[in-house]
Design goal:
Number of helices: 2
Order of helices and strands: EEEEEHH
Strand content: 25-35%
Strand order of the largest sheet: 3-4-5
Shape: elongated
Largest sheet: 3 strands, antiparallel
Radius of gyration: 14 Å
Structural class: alpha+beta
Low-confidence stretches: none
Helix content: 10-25%
């Protein structure tokens, strides 16, 4: 889960596994795989960082092939 802030200042969490895309229109808009959209105060870069941190925490990026590495060390 990642924490984000709505435009009205309300903080909530999203399951990062359901995030399909993050766009800036200029407000940051997060679209889920369900089609639900959230407009948040957080920058797209901050959301991307939180998504990566979440993936690392659940070891989703622990496979070197998923990370783009060709040879496992």
């Amino acid at each position: 889960m990642i924490q984000v802030t709505r435009l009205n200042g309300t903080v909530f969490t999203l399951n990062a596994l359901y995030i399909e895309k993050v766009e800036t229109f200029p407000d940051t808009t997060i679209t889920l795989t369900t089609g639900t959209k959230y407009v948040v105060l957080d920058t797209a870069e901050a959301v991307h960082s939180r998504i990566i941190e979440f993936y690392q925490a659940v070891q989703l990026l622990s496979n070197p092939h998923i990370r783009g590495e060709e040879h496992e060390e």
